[in-house]
Amino acid sequence: MYVCSNCGQESAKWIGKCPACGQWNTFKEIKASPQPLSFRRGAFGTGDSISSRGRDAGKVLRLRDISAHDDPRIDMHDEELNRVLGGGLVPGSIVLLGGEPGIGKSTLTLQTMLHLPEKKVLYISGEESAHQLKMRAERLTSPLPLEGDGEGFLILTENSLEAIFEHIKEVQPELVVVDSIQTIATEDVDSSAGSISQVRECASALLRYAKTSGVPVILIGHITKEGTLAGPKILEHIVDTVIQFEGDQHYMYRILRSIKNRFGSTSELGIYEMQQTGLRQVSNPSELLLTEDHDGLSGVAISSAIEGVRPFLVETQALVSSAAYGTPQRSATGFDQRRLNMLLAVLEKRVGFKLMQKDVFLNIAGGLRVTDMAMDLSVIAAVLSSNVDTPIESGWCMAGEVGLSGEVRPVARIEQRISEAEKLGFSHIIIPKYNLSGLNRKKFNIELVPVRKVEEALRALFG
């Protein structure tokens, strides 16, 4: 049959345009085997370690007879990773970690596994030799010695899925890592490693192993030129959790973002700093995302944003200049381009600033990509500050969503935003007036400036 490599849509014949996702020339032929693969059932050798999830598979159960207790999560000894996973790694789950080449996927995984001395970990590498992994482990653990002397950390360099399951049966690990799923191949499929059918069959076999044995499996995956996970979309449907490692290689910061999570929220964010000895957790990203000093610089505004349940202050930079050509340019880095166009239209229509013949460039400092609507007010303030070449006074930050009629709409979790700004020494924060209801102003030492319209916010900033 034919499968769309973009969305996983199946078809009995080749089609030029996928009817599900609309992409052209994405259907690839795969061999559909009518018989289940030989190693899928009864070949895992799990013995007595089969979880309740595996024992109950294939049985009809009454809802009231099913135990509702949660399996205790595995602590990864990494606060950022635990937060993104939803509190830790769930036993029997299968996690897909994706990211660009060289971003630090293998480094993050190896570093985390080295800090789990209480677990027997089997690290399967299809890309690197055992010698390369040893050198990387020494670099990540220096100058500290390896925890537990690496007694429970086992390394296997193998590309054959059948051989991998033989070793798993022999070793009986408590956690399995596959680096990467695109390098693993099974003999039951007549195609090269990394093809749609190979990735699909290997991931399905590892999924069945995880569910029947209760052993969590972490898969490392490549991404395509478009920034999506390589392989068919069905790979994302197979796994329980998809997390993506993002960041520019020219920046020190790396962002761990959850795209799909059956056991937690997908809005959580983990931030790391790449260092010589590995990835360091960033517990307070606000201090890193703000530059040391921006006094006297126009086009800079500070916004109090929230990603998941985590507040942090982020610096918004804007540059407005006369258009050199007939059509003005609109460019945004780390912010939605269409939302920038909408905010510029609000600024022109409702506030009266003419930006039709101006180039507008917007940048979120630190290489971060923020989707919080509360950034609207700081974007408008930064654009106007650059346009009139007047800096915003130090000590001011803001949070508010801007509507099409120029009103400042309320935002969620306003108390967390105010507390974060106060903690970092800001003296004034502009907030939507509607957020004042039910807010105890006395417990904050920072001055709150409530506004109802964009004009009021700009008047407070620029007089």
Primary descriptors:
single chain, four-stranded mixed sheet, 463 residues, 21 strands, nine-stranded mixed sheet, alpha/beta
Short description, anyone?
By secondary structure, the protein is α/β, with parallel strands linked by helices. Helix content is 26%, strand content 24%. The strands form five sheets. A nine-stranded mixed beta sheet has the order 6-5-7-8-4-9-10-11-12, with helices on both faces. A four-stranded mixed beta sheet has the order 13-14-16-15. Strands 2-1-3 form a three-stranded antiparallel beta sheet, with no helix packed on it.
Please give a structural write-up.
- A hairpin with a 5-residue loop joins strand 1 and strand 2 (10-11).
- The chain has helices spanning 52-55, 79-85, 105-114, 130-141, 161-171, 196-213, 234-238, 285-289, 337-351, 376-388, 414-423, 454-462, and strands at 2-4, 10-11, 27-29, 94-99, 121-125, 153-157, 175-179, 217-221, 241-246, 253-261, 269-275, 278-281, 300-307, 310-322, 330-333, 358-364, 396-398, 401-402, 408-409, 428-432, 447-451.
- With 463 residues, the protein is an alpha/beta fold.
- Helix 3 (105-114) packs across helix 4 (130-141) and helix 10 crosses helix 12 (454-462).
- The radius of gyration is 26 Å and the shape is globular.
- It contains 12 helices and 21 strands.
- Residues 38-42 and 45-52 have low confidence and may be disordered.
- It has a 9-stranded mixed sheet with strand order 6-5-7-8-4-9-10-11-12, with helices on both faces. It has a 4-stranded mixed sheet with strand order 13-14-16-15.
- The chain starts with a strand and ends with a helix.
